[in-house]
Design a protein that fits this description.
The protein has 6 helices and 11 strands. The chain is α/β, with parallel strands linked by helices. The strands form 3 sheets. A 5-stranded parallel β-sheet has the order 2-1-3-6-7, sandwiched between helices. A 4-stranded antiparallel β-sheet has the order 8-9-10-11, with no helix packed on it. Strands 4-5 form a two-stranded antiparallel ribbon. Strand 6, helix 4 and strand 7 form a beta-alpha-beta unit. Bound molecules: calcium ion.
Amino acid sequence: MIILLVEDDEAIARGLEYSLQQEGFGFLHCSTLAAARHALANERPALVLLDIGLPDGSGYELCSAAKAQGASVIFLTACDDEGNVVMGLDMGADDYITKPFNILEVKARIKAIMRRAGKNATQETKAKVVEVGELRLDCEGRRVFIGTREINLTAKEFDVLEL
Ligand code: CA
């Protein structure tokens, strides 16, 4: 899954690049609207992190194009300016994040949007049955067996075992 960051602040871009790649996301960075338009059309990102103040225009200009091709959009706003936020959400953005932001918050927002959009962040589907030797976990039915014998676990015990 590809995330496109449109941001002209190099320090912000580098920080996001590192941590989103650590999470297993494909990451593209553009620092101008023109480059972002090109990347949007050619790379089909699943999500766009969109700065508003860019050297060749406003991030707003890219929002509808991104939405039109099915990408989710999160605006990165320089200040908690309610006018900006309302305008961004009016344009169909999925969320906004106010700078300066915490990387952990960005990751959490991205994952929440991916869940809502039904996009799997890592493109792995969760295993329905896990088998380790004699041990078998039915993750959908939340049942555990050793051989053919069912083991009764509490919900919490099951969660720990599944993990
Ligand atoms: Ca900017």
